[in-house]
Amino acid sequence: METAKHLIIVAGEASGDARAAELVAQIRKLEPTATFAGLGGDQMARAGVSLYADLTKIAVVGFTEIIKHLSEIRTLFHLIIKKAEEERPSAVILVDYPGFNLRLATELKKRGIKVIYYISPQVWAWHSQRIDLIKRVVDKMIVFFGFEKDLYAQHGYAVDCVGHPLVDEIKIQKSPHELLAEVGLSQTTTIGLLPGSRVKEVQKIFPVMLQAARYLYARNPSLQFLVVQAPTIQTDILNDHHEISKLPIKIVKGQNYDSINACDLCFVASGTATLETALLLKPMVVVYKTSFLTWALAKCLIKIPYIGLVNVVAGKKIVPECIQFGATPDRLARHAIRLLSDKTKMAKTHNDLQRIKDSLGSPGASTRAAQIILSCL
Hints:
Elements: E1 6-11, H1 14-30, E2 35-40, H2 42-46, E3 50-54, H3 63-68, H4 70-87, E4 91-95, H5 98-110, E5 115-118, H6 130-137, E6 140-143, H7 146-154, E7 160-161, H8 166-169, H9 176-183, E8 190-194, H10 199-219, E9 224-229, H11 235-239, E10 249-253, H12 256-261, E11 265-269, H13 272-279, E12 284-288, H14 292-301, H15 309-314, E13 321-323, H16 329-341, H17 343-359, H18 365-376
Parallel strand pairs: 1-2, 1-4, 2-3, 4-5, 5-6, 6-7, 8-9, 8-11, 9-10, 11-12, 12-13
Helix pairs in contact: 1-18, 4-5, 5-6, 10-16
């Protein structure tokens, strides 16, 4: 009899945890006897992964932030290597989180363990030399975007593009009318605030969004605001800001897609949320701030003219970006006013977002990825 397949899977933050959980569920449908262990978060645990530790609890972004958690990260790095040596899995699946996972791939390769990478590092934005490393230490790379497949092909490395799992995931349960009525808002122009899924980024970005909202409300008292709370963010962190009590604003948790869909325009922290907002065809302003050192180093390394994922996928700037020193309340508000007051611009943005949606592939991305992984074992 064939031995049941055992897979170790590693994801380092909330979005990777969600993608990994979906992938595990699809592999299990195809291979019910497969077992899973690894590093991840609550969603992976619910999907049946036996967690060695919760890596998502120390999810950080930026150089200075990583230094603060270096001891914890090193401990988990050595733990996963030890477990891989002991368990000798059929493969280790690494999900995004390249600062950790590419180093891990290097060590696993030395030990003769098969490495499958799901969600490519952003080699198109910076560290293109990582492609040479990936070619040496990753046995199979699975990507979400067609332009990523083309980029790897230019470097002589064949990867599999499965499309984006968000195409399956985004489903609307309530109409805008129902959602707004449920949270106690009226049927008027609504601006969504999506300040991110990491505590540090929320602490830097949310105050800017709130001040922009206050500016807009002073100019137009018919506006109202909806805060889309990530599951990784405690409500107290959002409620600590005094501007909330001065605005017609509601915080909604657990209904992200219905909430975004109820908005006419969104302020969105750069990341996967920009794609979620795009798939719902909602105009947006991309916002991002980080520590000065992280920003200064990133500015030297990033080789593309924009950072919003929706703009990267489009290959051009289709929505405005307010980054670091440009992320000011006044600038956010001015972009919002221009969009809301210009029907032609809104229509063009809607059409651009529809093209983004069409480019992300057909439903079934996680199933396709599961099939590719099982074919490698």
